[in-house]
Amino acid sequence: MGDELQSADAGEALAEIQNRQRQVIDLAMVPHWYWWAVGALMVVLAVGVDTRTPAAIGATVPVFVVGLLSATGVVIRAQFRDAQLRKGLLDGSGVLAILSFVAVIIGISLGTAFALRAAGVSYPATLGCLVGGLLMGLGGPILMRGLRQIMLRNRVGSPR
Amino acid sequence: MTAGRFDELIHAPTRLAIVSLLAASEWADFKFIRDTVGLSDSALSKQLATLEQADYVEIRRGFVGKRPRTSARLTSAGRAAFEQHVRALQEMVARSGVSIVPR
Asked: pLDDT tens digits, residue range B37-48?
């Protein structure tokens, strides 16, 4: 009887340990709006590139830079306000997932833009970045879910 | 892999919650721990002091701008003790055959 109580208590303690670590991991999740904001900023920058006038480039580049820095600043500030995630939680597979995501977005945006330009379509960079921006908005949360799973797998006491 | 060692100090429910939060972080803000675990300022201070006396936790007091900010982190001894405690719990569960479903 004593052993049964002890093992049940141990089971509850392990569930509590995993739940508390999950609460910290969830702090590190980038909000959905961020991915859509970056996607929209890519399109704004591309409009300036396609328009090819100094005024358009002069207007869109600052919007892109300030917008990106502001959005990233808000996200980082929110993430570091409460706790800093332990470094070992995000292993090599997480870093590879992030780099692959960026490579796919850039590759599809550029590939689409060059293909459209070769086909003589107007505003190829804008359309290319529109596709990339949509992928960013839709794919960002999927990337976050994947990174969350990796970190949950790497928490102390997690079943491997 | 570290051997299991049940730690009575860590296993107390409130301290288990605090140490578990700290185990997933490099450091955590006092207010975040307080609100997440659901403690008063004085209750959390008392629990952190107990963990600090055991050399499991390091408390940092500083300022962000003009605002005072207190944060806590697990020491290497605290992290090792926590990992050994988790291993001991896992061994107890494995012996009983109970399965753990993480939330």
From this structure: 999 999 999 999
pLDDT at B90 exceeding the cut of 70: yes
- Residue A87 to residue B90, Cβ atoms within 8 A: no
DSSP string of chain A, one letter each residue: -HHHHHHHHHHHHHHHHHHHHHHHHHHTPPPHHHHHHHHHHHHHHHHHHHH--HHHHHHHHHHHHHHHHHHHHHHHHHHHHHEEE-GGGS-HHHHHHHHHHHHHHHHHHHHHHHHHHHTT-SSHHHHHHHHHHHHHHHHHHHHHHHHHHHHHHHSTT---
Is residue B100 a part of any domain in this protein? no
CB contact under 8 A, B93 and A7: yes
For residues A26 and B17, give the distance between their C-alpha atoms in angstroms, rounded to a whole number.
Answer: 16
What pTM was estimated for this model as a whole? 0.84
> Do B10 and B85 form a contact (C-beta atoms < 8 A)?
yes
| Among chain B residues, CA nearest to A86 | B25
Give the residue from chain A lying closest to B28, CA to CA: A83
Every domain of chain A and the residues it spans: 30-154
- Say which DSSP state B55 is in: T
Please tell me whether residue B12 adopts helix, strand or coil conformation.
Answer: coil
Q: Do A24 and B25 touch (CB under 8 A)?
A: yes
> Domain span at residue B76?
8-93
